[in-house]
Specification:
By secondary structure, the protein is α/β, with parallel strands linked by helices. It contains eight helices and six strands. The longest helix is centred in the middle third of the chain and has 17 residues. It starts with a helix and ends in a 56-residue tail after the last helix. Bound molecules: iron/sulfur cluster (SF4). Iron/sulfur cluster (SF4) binds next to helix 6. The site of iron/sulfur cluster has 13 residues, from helix 6.
Length: 213
């Protein structure tokens, strides 16, 4: 991250979903490049606890928080697709609320840091720490080789806080309609899009643009 900041300066930014596993990256940003913009995608579907946790972490680490939102009005979406798009077509919902707004924001940056780890999903196993893209900023994954155990060791060592819903079984927290708690022994992301053939929002694997359909 120091390399990214020294190389790209204000043309480097990080993104975070502000959940428990995000805290080490945010802590490291506060220690190494505290002025780096940290983007948070506000989909309008977050748990209130996530927004509270985000604000607490922003204050605690004095983060340069940037809120990213879709420019598409909710009323326009409902008129076009009806209620509950996240149930009928979660890929399209993620594209509209996450992928497209992030692409627009990212077009102004040359380096994009995110806290993805190889041990989170099958798709992420094939990522590299530095991922050039055909268009858009260089993707930088400083935590790619961290394990879940190392994340927790870091959290314990620095006495960092957990997301308020973590103790209720929400080991990975996304939008409220698409997140449920996990049961004992389940994978930490088992509660994301549970029961659907979907494991990623598309930010880190390039979700197909199917908004034309
Ligand atoms: S996680 Fe669910 S609610 Fe959030 S943008 Fe994706 S489909 Fe929509």
């Amino acid at each position: 991250m120091q390399w990214a900041w020294q190389t790209y300066g204000h043309k480097a930014a990080a993104s975070s979903s502000f959940q428990t596993q995000s805290v080490p990256l945010l802590h490291l940003i506060s220690q190494t490049c505290p002025k780096m913009p940290v983007m948070f995608l506000d989909t309008g579907f977050h748990f209130p606890e996530t927004l509270t946790f985000r604000d607490e972490l922003q204050a605690r680490f004095n983060l340069n928080l940037v809120i990213v939102r879709s420019t598409v009005e909710k009323s326009q979406l409902i008129a076009q697709y009806g209620e509950g798009l996240y149930r009928r077509d979660p890929d399209l919902c993620c594209y509209i609320h996450k992928v497209e707004p992030m692409q627009k924001t990212n077009s102004g940056f040359q380096g994009w840091i995110s806290g993805v780890r190889r041990d989170q999903t099958t798709n992420r196993q094939g990522l590299s720490i530095l991922e050039p893209q055909d268009t858009g900023p260089l993707r930088i994954h400083p935590m790619l080789n961290w394990t879940k155990k190392e994340v927790w060791e870091y959290i314990d060592r620095h006495q960092l806080p957990a997301h308020p819903l973590f103790s209720n079984g929400y080991l990975s927290v996304g939008c409220a309609p698409c997140t449920r708690p996990v049961f004992s022994g389940q994978d930490e992301r088992a509660g994301r899009w549970a029961g659907q053939d979907k494991a990623e929002c598309g930010l880190h694997i390039g979700l197909k643009n199917n908004t034309e359909g």
